[in-house]
Amino acid sequence: MGFGIISVSGKTMKLVSLGVLKLQKTDDHPLKLKYIFEKSIALIDEFHPDELSIEAPFFGKNVQSMLKLGRAQGVAMAAALSRSIPIFEYSPRKIKQSITGKGSASKEQVASMLFHLLSMKEAPEQLDATDGLAVAVCHFFQKGNTGTEKKFTGWKSYLSANPERLG
């Protein structure tokens, strides 16, 4: 499970941390959920976020995988709720579109745009980390933190109104 933490000051975001919760090698699904809950609480207690954004469950081909993913997301949400942190959900397509302007973008395209937006120096070992960061950045954009008060229809309209943001 990837995570990304950003700080927001006015209309500016800055990378604080990103990474992956590496699940222990066990076939015991409830123990994995316990681990996700404990690690989520530890991140919350360390970084004191104001809000949690999470990828909404999506329909996949494998029902068992989808069920396990939904449970893991629910546990992460429960961790935030236990600390009275508001939760915001975004579909995978909305996240990709917010970051790249294209709802069908690849993980690599999303990661590349995040490196540019946040002036990241090096890539994380796993793209799951940038997936978690993408949700946080999507939330930043959805709240209207684009540097102007305008709402944009997509990445192209944002860039045409903010050419200085394109490196």
3D structure, described in words:
There is one protein chain. The protein has 167 residues and is α+β, with helices and mostly antiparallel strands. The chain has a single domain, classed as Ribonuclease H-like superfamily/Ribonuclease H (Nucleotidyltransferase, domain 5), CATH 3.30.420. It is built from six helices and four strands; from the N terminus they run ββαβαβαααα. Strands 1-2 form a two-stranded antiparallel ribbon. The chain has a two-stranded parallel sheet with strand order 3-4. The chain starts with a strand and ends in a 6-residue tail after the last helix. The model has no long low-confidence stretch (mean pLDDT 87).
Key features?
alpha+beta, Nucleotidyltransferase, domain 5, 6 helices, 15% strand, globular
Q: In the CATH hierarchy, what is the architecture at level 2?
A: 2-Layer Sandwich
- Number of DSSP strands? 4
Question: Which spans of ≥5 residues are poorly predicted at pLDDT below 50?
Answer: none
Compressed to H and E, one letter per element, the order equals EEHEHEHHHH
- CATH-level-4 superfamily name: Ribonuclease H-like superfamily/Ribonuclease H
Radius of gyration: 16 Å
Counting helices, strands and paired strands, the structural category is alpha+beta
The helix content is 40-55%
Approximately how much beta-strand content do the residues carry?
Answer: 5-15%
Q: Within the CATH hierarchy, at the fold level, what is the topology?
A: Nucleotidyltransferase, domain 5
- The whole-number mean of residue pLDDT values reads 87
The CATH class turns out to be Alpha Beta
Summed up, the helix count is 6
| Approximate shape | globular
Distance between the termini: 30 Å
Query: How many domains?
Result: 1
Largest sheet: 2 strands, antiparallel
Q: Strand arrangement, largest sheet?
A: 1-2
